[in-house]
Design a protein that fits this description.
This protein is mostly beta strands. The chain folds into two domains: about 5-65 and about 375-430, no CATH class; about 65-370, Methylamine Dehydrogenase, Chain H, CATH 2.130.10. Helices cover about 10% and strands about 45% of the residues. It contains three helices and 36 strands. Helix 1 packs across helix 2 (about 25-35). It is globular and about 75 Å long.
């Protein structure tokens, strides 16, 4: 791919939303606020000498950031990538599921509504066509991943309280669910009917369930501090409980080759287990200072990601158990869910702080930064009824306002940098026909 094509793609990624809302943003916003190194801006800006000129803080290169995925009004309990990596689904205590564009961070469509309790778990079908969700309303629901429409009636069968965890079988034909009623249920995706009898053996609520990659087994983690393995075909328990944790088992995950199971616990550790023998592998992975809510293997099986009540994510070498780099910090509350993208390059995390964040696996850096923290250059210009232009400028944590007049020719002048008494820098000069919104990187 040529440098020119990459620049055009980045230009569209950053400015596509404002341009889609108003074509003049091509000239009024995009060309004016593109970084100095942008070839498309360099080529076209000279053709439009009347566009605004950014006099301060214009970035030299494209910033590798996205907005935080914000929209839920309660904790984000579960996040999942679609199989193609293009979308993220999130389930929240606000009783909704949301879909997000994994590249831009923009919400897709309206929230999926239907549950009457907190959404505890969301998962995509292997072909990406459906989403399954489990809720505190005791039901599992199926959704069309393209339209967001509910598919059929809710799946009912758990006796009471929360459905804590749901996941599709690798062939997409079944769903397994774990519940506060201490049981695991299997469901026929096509008919919505329960398959066989409940899988019983745990002595406390079942917090997490997972299918093995070959679909032959299920792993479950429970508040009884154990992990259990189950034969999908017969429903029988395989061997005895896997014991070692001294706290509640909150998350279980199979490795991609099906040979291992990882478990996260309120005892602040992650354990690895041999999926065939049930024996513990090595020593517990220690480093978190809060309960471990979620664990996930990378697609190649080389790494494990964990999310914790200590507000951090950690990466671990799945072979040695060693921590990889420092904790990933950014969330302001417990990290409830972590998942790898299908290509293994990113991690999505959901938190009690009501947001979803994206992380670069190789660098450990946050791909997303808060919109509200103003830790990146931001510019907003809004004409007000009295004919002046009110502008918000921030490149740190302090909002900065200034006001300017718009003369009869439509040119900005008389910028007042002391509207709020806060330090500012001039933002625009000589802008004709000011846009309703000028914001870098996106409106």
């Amino acid at each position: 791919m040529t440098t020119w094509i990459r620049d055009v793609m980045r230009f569209v990624d950053v400015f596509g939303k404002p341009i889609s809302q108003s074509v003049p943003h091509i000239y009024l916003s995009a060309l004016a606020f593109a970084p100095l190194s942008s070839m498309i801006a360099q080529h076209h800006a000279s053709l439009y000498p009347s566009i605004g000129i950014l006099k301060a803080d214009r970035p030299s290169t494209w910033l590798d950031i996205q907005p935080i995925l914000e929209g839920h009004i309660a904790s984000v309990n579960s996040v999942a990538f679609s199989p193609d990596g293009a979308r993220i689904a999130s389930g929240s205590g606000d009783e909704t599921i949301r879909l997000w564009d994994a590249k831009t961070g923009v919400a897709i469509g309206k929230p999926l509504r239907g549950h009457t309790g907190s959404v505890r778990s969301v998962t995509f079908s292997p072909n990406g066509a459906r989403i399954a969700s489990g809720s505190g309303d005791r039901t599992i629901r199926l959704w069309d991943a393209t339209t967001g429409a509910a598919i059929g009636e809710p799946l009912k069968g758990h006796k009471y309280d929360w459905v804590r965890s749901v996941t599709f079988s690798p062939d997409g034909a079944r769903i397994v669910s774990g519940s506060d009623d201490k049981t695991i249920l299997l469901w026929d995706v096509k008919t919505g009917a329960a398959i066989g009898k409940p899988l019983q053996g745990h002595t406390s609520l079942v917090w997490s369930v997972a299918f093995s990659p070959d679909g032959a087994r299920i792993a479950s983690g429970s508040h009884d501090k154990t992990i259990r393995l189950w034969d999908v075909k017969t429903g029988a328990a395989i061997g005895g409980p896997l014991q070692g944790h001294t706290g509640l088992v909150l998350s279980v995950a199979f490795s991609p080759d099906g040979a291992r199971v990882a478990s996260g616990s309120s005892d602040e550790t992650i354990w690895l287990w041999d999926a065939m023998t049930g024996a513990a592998i090595g020593k517990p992975l220690q480093g978190h200072t809060g309960l471990v809510w979620s664990v996930a293997f990378s697609p190649d099986g080389a790494r494990i990601a964990s999310g914790s009540g200590d507000q951090t994510l950690r990466l671990w070498d799945a072979k040695t158990g060693a921590a990889i780099s420092k904790p990933l910090q950014g969330h302001t509350s417990s990290v409830r869910s972590v998942t790898f993208s299908p290509d293994g390059a990113r991690i999505a995390s959901g938190s009690n702080d009501k947001t979803i964040r994206l992380w670069d696996v190789n660098t450990g850096a946050a791909i997303s930064k808060p919109l509200h923290s103003h830790t990146r250059p931001a510019r907003r210009v809004v004409p007000v009824p009295d004919g002046t232009l009110t502008a918000l400028h921030s490149n740190d944590r302090a909002p900065r306002l200034r006001q300017a007049s718009i003369n009869h020719s439509g040119t900005v002048s008389n910028v007042d940098n002391n509207l709020t008494g806060l330090p500012t820098t001039d933002m625009v000069s000589g802008m004709k026909h000011p846009p309703l919104c000028v914001l870098y990187p996106v409106c």
